[in-house]
Amino acid sequence: QVQLVESAGGLVQAGGSLRLSCAPSGRTFKDYAMGWFRQAPGQEREFVAAISKSGDSTYYADSVVGRFTISKDNAKNTVYLQMNSLKPEDTAVYYCAARDSDFDLYKYWGQGTQVTVSS
Q: What is the percentage of the chain residues whose pLDDT exceeds 70?
């Protein structure tokens, strides 16, 4: 099983920014398509962003378009979620995820990190 290690989240004021990172243990990101999901208290887990295996294509939930950016740096073997213009409704536990292809189910998950946005 691939282990995904996420950076710590944090407490951010509304309108602020935060960058999350995720790195695999024992494997390289060139082998996977990556994504970010989040789960707010009392809510189901929802899709946030994804990047194709090649890195050529990215996809975003409508709620974060224009504010969040997913990227990966193969040299550093790290995937990022840059979050700008944060809103209180972005408060959630954020999960890094990986899948073996662009059309596969997400099989590997990070431990989750708390992001709290204060108003």
A: 99
